[in-house]
Amino acid sequence: MGLKKKESNALKYHVKNAKDLKDYLMEKGKKHKQYKHYCRRDRLAKNLDNKCLYLMDALDWNDAEEKKNYRANSNGKKRYGLCFSYSTLENVAMWLVYCTLKDKEGLMMSLPNELVKDIINNTNSVTLGNFNFEGEFEPSPNEVAVNKGDIYLVDMYYLTPSAVKYRCSRAEEHADLENEVYEGTKQYSKIYPWHFENEVRMILELDQEIGADFSAAKIELSNEIVQKIKKEYLYEGPLNTSTDYNKSSLKGRIKI
């Protein structure tokens, strides 16, 4: 008996309602081998030196539709997010966003599944606050407790609108969405031109009244995790002149 062929478009079986699609995106989100986060070098290096990561509420995101949708279906919750790519290889397009001569240098941390889960499972509280015009974090005076399930991973899907249905894409999977399914899950959607990201998002949900006045949530990292990231999982951008961390596989192959 031959091997059963693996289903390459499972998404189409998980769009019957909004809960079905959300559950599928969350199940996929927690199973990736690698979670790649691209960022300006100065910003990510500073965060790691301060032993923290920041999840943001989309206030300063550059896609107006995504910013609006991210607040949809909140059910009394405020969302903060940190964006990763689940692409197996380095993403040229992402490096071009964060690592150009104009924008100086970039860094990418490529975290294995178990380390991301360690960060989530070991986060029992966060500090809320806002960034000032100088880019410095101004914390609120009290930490906020985080319960199991408040932080989760979820794949984003990419949307092509049509007159009748919405075309939904995730990696190489595609499905048509009824309007009510899209409306119930659009907080996890982006327009299709962003599909090169292959985005999986770490999301924190807190009661709206707790997070209403704050645009950022600070997660503390242990010294052990920070040192492991710096030694094993942090990569210089392909255009960087700095050599403190691992070398990009695209070093010397990209020109701007």
Describe the structure.
- The chain is an alpha+beta fold and 256 residues long.
- It has a domain at 26-153 and 199-236.
- Helices cover 26% and strands 32% of the residues.
- The chain has eight helices and 14 strands.
- It has helices spanning 18-29, 41-49, 64-70, 92-98, 113-121, 179-185, 208-211, 223-233; strands spanning 34-40, 52-56, 77-85, 106-112, 125-131, 137-145, 151-155, 157-160, 166-170, 173-177, 189-191, 199-207, 216-220, 234-236.
- The strands form four sheets. It has a four-stranded antiparallel beta sheet with strand order 2-13-5-6.
- Strand 9 and strand 10 form a beta hairpin.
- Helix 1 packs across helix 6.
- 35% of the residues are buried.
- Mean pLDDT is 91; it is low at 1-5.
The mean pLDDT is: 91
Approximate helicity band: 25-40%
Largest sheet: 4 strands, antiparallel
Strand content: 25-35%
What sequence of helices (H) and strands (E) makes up the elements? HEHEHEHEHEEEEEEHEEHEHE
What's the count of strands? 14
Shape estimate: globular
Could you give the distance between the termini?
A: 53 Å
